[in-house]
Amino acid sequence: MKLSNSAINRIGDIIRQEKHDETYDEAIFALNEWREKHGAIMDSYYDKCMAISAKINKNIVVAQRLKRLPTIIGKLKRFDKMRLSSMQDIAGVRVIVKDMEELTAVEKEIGKLSNLYKISDYIKNPKNSGYRGKHFIFRENNMFVEVQIRTQLQHLWATSVETTDVFRGSSMKTLDEKTYWHDFFIQVSTVFAIAENEKTLPDYKGKELSEVCSSLEENVSKHKIFRDISTFALTQPFILNDKVKNAYYAVMFLDFKKKEAVVTTYREEEYDAAFSKYEALEKKAKTGSNTVLVAVSQIKELRNAYPNYFMDLNAFLSIIKFILDKAIK
User: Fold this and answer.
1) 112 shares a domain with 30
2) Is the domain of 124 the same as that of 158?
3) Pairing status of strand 116-121 against strand 143-151
4) CA 64, chain centre distance (Å)
5) Residues 12 and 100 in one domain
6) What is the pTM (predicted TM-score) of this model?
7) What is the strand order of the sheet 143-151 is part of?
8) What pLDDT digit, counting tens, does each position of 287-298 carry?
9) Which of 7, 105, 199, 223 falls between 20 and 30 A from 187, CA-CA?
10) Helical segments of 86-207, H only
11) Is there a single domain that holds both residue 145 and residue 102?
């Protein structure tokens, strides 16, 4: 399927209007086909990032994902002037490095790759939400792929915001909500930025680590935040059992209300069936659920790069508690 930008944008406009008729269903079908077509460019940059990372540190985590259908639709509705053809993060590759020194080494090499379209530096200029990371956008065959590079601390923060949003039914990632949760993640982002000797948000400029930790400790204690975060986990976590280990693809349906995961496996030659299952589950998805299609060989990397898919906040809690204990002592 080859579509012009105008045809792609018409698909987006139809979906944005959300008139659930035959035309809408056809637009959803076309969107799914166009999204799946991003797989080739995504695989290409995944391989390139893997090669770069292997030369620097074999423990660097590299993973890839196609943006979920509900997320694409939500973004079209949220930004009414956005053109579907210009959505730059439908295909994504994520690179998780140990620290800023390693990030600098990786970004230097990634910046040399061909078809570089744009760089967004959210480390020198953090988002108002507290998000930090570096994004490289590549354009090839009229499609975009976004390569995100984050340190482990930046990554823990970002995925923990997404996980908390799922359980709270909020959108701290996209909305500037004024709650103690918002303050908590701003405070944690600031603590992490100071620990990495990087820029903080203007409101925290020049503040000492001990001062920020004191505010964070007070917020955590007053609102019992650690208690609430500890409940944000799957009671039936995804496990690589023999059935899954012997498969090539896995479609995971994560129900955050029931706190359980259901996994369907497929052989290598059954990709079309796996994608059809994934597509069907996405259409049925409601708030509080998530669907993921992944090659089994990448599940370990996926869990490290996308812990929000698994509702895993243990590492996030541990590092905050460690920093607060050190600050208090």
Assistant:
1) yes
2) no
3) unpaired
4) 10
5) yes
6) 0.83
7) 61-66, 91-97, 143-151, 134-140, 116-121
8) 667 787 777 666
9) 105
10) 100-110, 152-168, 180-195
11) yes
